[in-house]
Amino acid sequence: MKIGIIGLPQVGKKTLFGLLTNYKLTEKDIASNKPIKAVAEIKDPRFDLLVKAYGPKKEASARIDIEILPKLEKDTIAKGEIFTDINELDAICHVVRAFKDESIYHVEGSVDPKRDINFVNSELILHDLVFIEKRMERLEAKIKQIKEEAAIKEKEILVRLKAHLEKESPLRFFEFGHDELRAVSSYPFVTRKAMLIVLNISEEDLNDTGLVEQLKRDYQNACEVMRISAKVESEIANLESEEERKDFMEELGIKEPAINVLTRSCIKALNLISFFTVGPDEVRQWTIKAGSTAPEAAGAIHTDLEKGFIRAEVMKYDDFTRLGSEGKVKEAGKLYLKGKDYVVEDGDIINIRFSV
């Protein structure tokens, strides 16, 4: 699963990509006009607590693949290659400039986050509309020749999708039925991708949530929206000691670096959840698709565990933190045995019973 960072020029994409992945972009990377790929470590306080509780020999947090795509401007949009790159993603992280700095130019001459979001959405919608129109032309030609029933049904679906897009509404807001999903599953619709909007704000706006709340209302909470100050996050990351970072964040009224929250928002945008395996040898965080069963979680650890799955021993993270230890969870009767139909919940602490 991978998420890609997109946005207009000079919005802070490279800074956020570097903060997420610790990847140092070179001039060659930037000049290549190709997606740059790296890996981001998920920052999850639940994992940190479990590591502290077990003191394992090894620890491994979850990771996700992240790409930074070429900047969205007239040339890259006209060539169309960026849409091919977007189509290969599982989710999109759209970085939007909300900070004011006269020393950094804006391609539109002024800072207006809603305008920029609408511009990018319009370009993505236009891409999908153009594809639909071309596909419908081919279907109409086929229908004239042989009146194929499948082609007629597909055209009817595309007509509905086209009407939806013409209302300036991305396909992620369209309620797909089973037949519709099956018909369009192979199509390169970029507006079906999950979208995470990240507002890159000024330090003085750290406590102002007004724009975020407004955007959430606009998107009816169907699109994740968060704020981050790339400048402040860079300052936090560059401090030498944990104590300095803690003092600096306290001065600003920050509980944890927003970049940590962003990693978890990426997980949410990818429709993933986390579960944990624990013990004195290793504490590890795993990610799986929301709705996965216990055997599928076992398969994320190793295919042999899925094949030989018998039962899953499950502790709830909240029970563990409330009671204080694995032993006390067992004493309280809160260690559950779950079978093949159990749907894993976010934060579950799991031990797989299996046979070889």
Overview of the structural elements:
With 356 residues, the protein is an alpha/beta fold. The protein folds into three domains: 172 residues, P-loop containing nucleotide triphosphate hydrolases (Rossmann fold); 72 residues, DNA polymerase, domain 1, CATH 1.10.150.300; 64 residues, Beta-grasp domain (Ubiquitin-like (UB roll), Roll), CATH 3.10.20. The chain has 16 helices and twelve strands. The protein has a six-stranded mixed beta sheet with strand order 2-4-1-5-6-7, sandwiched between helices. α6 packs antiparallel against α7. The radius of gyration is 23 Å and the shape is globular. The relative contact order is 0.14.
The span between the termini is 29 Å
The structure class reads: alpha/beta
Secondary-structure element series: EHHEHEEHHEHHHEHEHHHEEHHEHHEE
Looking at the structure, the CATH topology of the largest domain is: Rossmann fold
C-alpha Rg (nearest Å) = 23 Å
Helix content: 40-55%
Strands, total number: 12
Mean pLDDT, to the nearest integer, reads 92
- The low-pLDDT segments are none
How many independent structural domains?
A: 3
Query: In this structure, how is the largest beta sheet organized?
Result: 6 strands, mixed
What is the CATH class name of the largest domain? Answer: Alpha Beta
The CATH fourth-level homologous superfamily of the largest domain: P-loop containing nucleotide triphosphate hydrolases
Q: Could you say what the CATH architecture of the largest domain is?
A: 3-Layer(aba) Sandwich
Tell me the overall shape.
globular
Number of helical segments? 16
Name the strands of the widest sheet in spatial order. Answer: 2-4-1-5-6-7
Strand proportion:
15-25%
